[in-house]
Amino acid sequence: MPTKCYQVDELDQAAQALRQGQLVAFPTETVFGLGAIANNEEAVKSVYQAKGRPSDNPLIVHIAKAEDLFRFSGDLSLEVERVARRLVETFWPGPLTIIVPVRKGTFGPTVTGGLQTVGIRMPDHPLTLSLIQKTGFPLVGPSANLSGKPSPTCVQHVLHDFDGKIAGVVDADPTRIGVESTVVDITHPGQVYILRPGAITEKDLQKALPEIEVTDATRVIQSDSLEHPKAPGMKYRHYSPHQEVYALLPEELMKTLHSLTPDEKAKGAVIARDQVLSQCEGFAKTFSLGENVKTATHGLFAGLRAFDDDDQVQILYVEQLPDQAENRAYRNRLSKAASNKEGLPPRS
């Protein structure tokens, strides 16, 4: 049965499907999420099954009211609660997921990956906030793509992976940000750890919490954290299309592209910002990431999906950005997608 595209005036139908334990994809400002009502263990399990997602990869819970963070979290110290309220007041609704102790009996172990913590966020999208309210309970919402593939930033991406496999998708414009939310762990008093970079940066967090130490843990991940990840995307390879992906800094990218034979160029596609693309002679297939880091981050997943159905394209040559704070979300996603972890492709 084809997946239904729910229009704005059909949100009641989408909410009813969710209450019945069906899966409905929904838009956010970051990427599209694959929604299931979070108090139905079988529905949540079906999210893992549909995506092919490892069972120890925890899910993020999406709420419609900021106060629900405290309704669904366990006991918080006064210091941790103050941090939570400051983050909520500053960044919600928005692309920030806050990890807190989970209140016992609220969500099943399938939601939390068996952990005693849960990631919660309030998305900045009116259709999804309305959908959650109409459903009557928070929704889990991992990215609405097959596990390991690039995250979806438009309805067409969702349907490419799930048409006929889920009940529906809420019809909406492409997402505004294009990469998943920043994830922070606030369960350690006096500390905030960034477990996944996103649009809200370390600098943004430090400005909101000047008295708290903010640490980008993605740069100093411990092995135990990888064995028992508190946030999605920490342990497993993500964001990879079926082609090989080579992430190269601009100078190295241009050197590599200029060295390719016409036959090699015919089998490749270039995903880069406009300044690089303007120098890519001989490539019929390219995807523009725009002019700056913001447009590049917004377009990265769409670029990685752009050649999904083109069997001629075997290699994607993708511009990597320098290791700077403002590029962290882009670099995090592209590095996870890259086949070579930023090295040169093999030559035949």
Automatic annotation (TrEMBL):
PROSITE patterns: YRDC. NCBIfam families: L-threonylcarbamoyladenylate synthase. Its main location: cytoplasm. L-threonine binds at T30, H62, R121, S181. Pfam families: Sua5_C, Sua5_yciO_yrdC. Its EC number is 2.7.7.87. GO terms for molecular function: ATP binding; double-stranded RNA binding; L-threonylcarbamoyladenylate synthase; tRNA binding. It is found in: Cytoplasm. Required for the formation of a threonylcarbamoyl group on adenosine at position 37 (t(6)A37) in tRNAs that read codons beginning with adenine. It catalyses: L-threonine + hydrogencarbonate + ATP = L-threonylcarbamoyladenylate + diphosphate + H2O. ATP binds at R53, N57, T117, S143, S151, R196, Y239. This is Threonylcarbamoyl-AMP synthase. GO terms for biological process: regulation of translational fidelity; tRNA processing. SUPFAM superfamilies: YrdC/RibB (SSF55821). Transmembrane segments: none annotated. Residues 8-200 form the YrdC-like domain. Belongs to the SUA5 family. One of its GO terms (cellular component) is cytoplasm. Keywords: ATP-binding, Cytoplasm, Nucleotide-binding, Nucleotidyltransferase, Transferase, tRNA processing.
